[in-house]
Write a structure and sequence with these properties.
- Two copies of one chain form a homodimer.
- The first copy, chain A, is of the alpha+beta class.
- Chain A contains eight helices and six strands; from the N terminus they run ααααββααββββαα.
- The first copy, chain A, has helices at 20-28, 33-41, 47-54, 58-70, 92-95, 98-112, 156-162, 168-172; strands at residues 74-80, 85-90, 118-122, 130-131, 134-138, 150-154.
- In chain A, the strands form two sheets. In chain A, strands 1-2 form a two-stranded antiparallel sheet.
- The two termini of chain A are 21 Å apart.
- Chain A binds a DNA duplex through residues 30-31, 46-48, 51, 56-63, 80, 82-86.
- Chains A, B: InterPro entries: HTH_HxlR (IPR002577), WH-like_DNA-bd_sf (IPR036388), WH_DNA-bd_sf (IPR036390).
- Chains A, B: It holds the Pfam family HxlR.
- Chains A, B: Keywords: DNA-binding, Transcription, Transcription regulation.
Amino acid sequence: MCKPWVMAADIDFLPRGACSIAASLELVGERWSLLVIREVAWGNHRFSDIVRGTGAPRDRLAARLSALVAAGVLEKRPYSDSPPRSGYHLTAAGRDLLPVLQALLQWGDRWARDEPAVRLSHAPGGTAEHPIDAEWVCRTCGRPVMESRVSRELTPAGRALAGLPITEEHAHEH
Amino acid sequence: MCKPWVMAADIDFLPRGACSIAASLELVGERWSLLVIREVAWGNHRFSDIVRGTGAPRDRLAARLSALVAAGVLEKRPYSDSPPRSGYHLTAAGRDLLPVLQALLQWGDRWARDEPAVRLSHAPGGTAEHPIDAEWVCRTCGRPVMESRVSRELTPAGRALAGLPITEEHAHEH
DNA sequence: CTCCCTCGGTTCGATTATCCAACCAACGAG
DNA sequence: CTCGTTGGTTGGATAATCGAACCGAGGGAG
């Protein structure tokens, strides 16, 4: 029995950059980026709030913020006309990063410290409030992803990125 | 109505380092680290395999590998006696990072490129193989986490990290 | 009007990390 | 003995990061 998530695939090595993990890290993998997203998600929208919440140097923070705006993860929204000031808010793409933060939070709670320092709770649909202990579940079959064998396959788009030939053989193989 | 994951909490600013997200990034947030985990998870255990798979410079890779071993995320396991060679494998902590990779993969598929380059499939419990489209679901109530309001609260351990007083008031408040 | 404060950044110089090519040691094959 | 493979190190150039100081537009108090 093979470990979950470790399985032979139709390829040995992904071409560099073909993997969406690498593509994501290209956009949000630099230092402070994810902590900035966390601060904004937690309601700290102003420059000085984010400085205080992350502890990042101001110049790095300014650089990250404009990079994240350029990447479409954050947007600048004015909150005062005089003096003209604006804060940062999550776009749809930014909100979609929250699972990444949730995953990092859960991992850190478990492996990076003795006791969690922050507890997250929710009360979905009127149920009683309770702490969150989340797992990845496949929307298609409803089963936890991490407990099953996973296989990976290079798509035609991936082959194109890789500069590999897109053959009938590959288009049909499984 | 407040956006999910954006909600008032009992604290305005988390002390730096109190948050497990920051603690996680401290261990695996540096460049190449998560790509190394990806390679190892995908079955590339040897130094030269990981060089090829990630494209990282050899010296950076050596540094990351020993850091990840020191952090308890990877372990070195010999695969040949003569010549004495060893490869890198995921520990339990390392396998627990896979949700982070899954989250980054899904985000990248959606926001960082036109078409996914790699398709992940699984066939849990003898069902037919199908692509993975996963979401975070609370183990307690079975509901998707991202669709409900989430509140955060500093635990006593978090207060201690923050240097804040641990009062009865705070221990009981909600 | 003047002085001082806040906010959202920039600028500067020093430190640190990263990159890349070359090198090295251990071993096996031929 | 030489060659190729593997798993790294080393050295020097380049780029990112840091921390503190600075700046400019605008209040508000006096």
